[in-house]
Design brief:
single chain; alpha/beta; Immunoglobulin-like; Rossmann fold; 10-stranded mixed beta sheet; 5-stranded mixed beta sheet; 20% helix
Length: 444
């Protein structure tokens, strides 16, 4: 497993293939596929130099259900800082709300301060306009992660040296993206379909070729279509939740997050050749890594969920289970899914996915599937969601259909529209660990 990278500038799109290294693994000359690593950027992107004893400033990000945000700035000093003498008011960050200031031995957030050369200025993730993911129509991308920090009060070192406030803003010159940085980026060329598909791949840190690992395939929605390969990782939790340290401790697995440059499965219920290219990529990865082919899992939100349905119909018995979030398909085509194991989450306020999946689950039930149904409060606590999941699991159904109650999905500051219910569904759905536990319990 590669080490965590610090980066900003990156190479994306068509130029990545031209810059790529030689083919990896079994993608040798004459094979039907070839996979290229996508070069990453440099460790810094410029920015102001440190002011006096301040050596540098680093932005630290986190991915939430509604996108990636800068959640802290790590200010590096030339000496160890005394954590007990730090005040929250000692730093400001332009345009942001400072909620906590702690010293640390590394450029990382921590639950408890410790004397070290870094001061971690923690920021409120609720500040408006701070998401680093953007969408425009049916395309998205990743904004540059930058912040500007100013020391406004005295800071004291462990040897009682005092650093007076400078009043000079220091721009961040590096970025650390926990979890996101643990994915590697590649481009895959399928000579059968002619498609080139960029993708992100997470491999467990302690990967052992002698162990067979599950593979989770996350497919993003239409708003995240982009030539920027990182978009699917920063848009929400659908990819990164499976790769978190907590989840990897319980269920070490590989995570594949393709980045589609165009719509793959839409409202006409037709999938492009990228459906087959994605399956081809999965099979090629199985030739490079020790993957348990009885534990392949598909998941997707919106258009990505529709693609997961299309893949299950076209490739029966490929996936052991699928997690379908805020999506739908043509009821006339879904009969083969009656043999599958599915967990479905939609919102009552979603005028498309809710009626669509309600019809589909009825079709599957008439086709012989056992369906468990429940209506959940979308604002349930983690403990309440655990109870909700346990109740459904206890019914031992092959298909679980969880509906989020209208009025509990959209944040209070947003209009309770069909679109906002649609978008709000996956922010909740991928933050429910119990459903991921159920997924990993399934075998083909």
């Amino acid at each position: 497993m590669h080490s965590r990278r610090v980066f900003l500038t990156r190479a994306f799109g068509a130029t990545a293939l031209a810059l790529g290294a030689a083919a990896c693994g079994s993608g040798a000359t004459g094979s039907r596929w070839v996979s290229f690593p996508i070069p990453r950027g440099t460790t810094t992107y410029g920015g102001a130099t440190g002011a006096g004893p301040i050596k540098s400033a680093t932005a630290i990000t986190e991915v939430f259900g509604n996108g990636m945000r800068i959640v802290a700035v790590a200010v590096e000093y030339d000496k160890d800082i005394d954590d007990t003498k730090l005040a929250r008011s000692a730093f400001t960050v332009r345009g942001r709300t400072v909620v906590e200031v702690r010293a640390n031995t590394s450029a990382a957030t921590a639950q408890k301060g410790r004397n070290g050369k870094y001061v971690i200025v923690t920021l409120s993730p609720d500040d408006s306009g701070t998401s680093l993911h953007y969408s425009s129509g049916l395309s998205g991308g990743v904004k540059t992660a930058k912040a500007s920090v100013t020391q406004t009060e005295t800071v004291t070192t462990t040897d009682d040296t005092t650093y007076s406030p400078t009043g000079t803003a220091v721009a961040t010159s590096k970025v650390i993206n926990p979890i996101v940085d643990d994915f590697n980026q590649f481009a895959y060329k399928d000579t059968t379909t002619g498609d080139t598909l960029q993708y992100n791949l997470f491999v467990p840190r302690d990967y052992d070729a002698g162990t067979a690992y599950p593979l989770v395939v996350f497919m993003h929605d239409a708003a995240a279509t982009s030539t920027d390969v990182l978009t699917t990782l920063v848009q929400g939790l659908g990819a990164v939740c499976w790769a978190s340290p907590e989840d990897q401790t319980r269920h070490p697995c590989l995570v594949l997050a393709p980045q589609y440059a165009g719509l793959v499965a839409g409202d006409n219920y037709q999938a492009t050749s990228m459906r087959d290219t994605t399956v081809s990529l999965i099979r090629s990865l199985a030739g490079q890594y020790s993957i348990d082919m009885d534990r392949l899992y598909a998941t997707g939100q919106g258009g990505g969920g529709m693609l997961a349905i299309a893949m299950n119909i076209a490739y029966p018995n490929l996936f052991a289970a699928s997690y379908l979030v805020a999506c739908r398909w043509d009821p006339a085509e879904v009969a083969p899914l009656a043999r599958d194991r599915l967990w479905i989450v939609v919102s009552q306020g979603d005028g498309s996915a809710y009626p669509g999946m309600s019809v589909i689950t009825g079709v599957l039930e008439r086709g012989g599937a056992k369906v468990s149904r429940a209506v959940w409060n979308g604002r349930s606590t983690a403990q309440q969601f655990d109870v909700h999941v346990d109740r459904m699991v206890a019914e031992a159904a092959s298909i679980n259909y969880a509906v989020l109650e209208r009025g509990t999905v959209v944040p209070e500051w947003q209009a309770d529209t069909s679109l906002n219910n649609h978008l709000g569904t996956w922010a909740i759905a991928y933050a429910i660990p119990g459903i991921r536990e159920w997924i990993f319990a399934q075998r083909r």
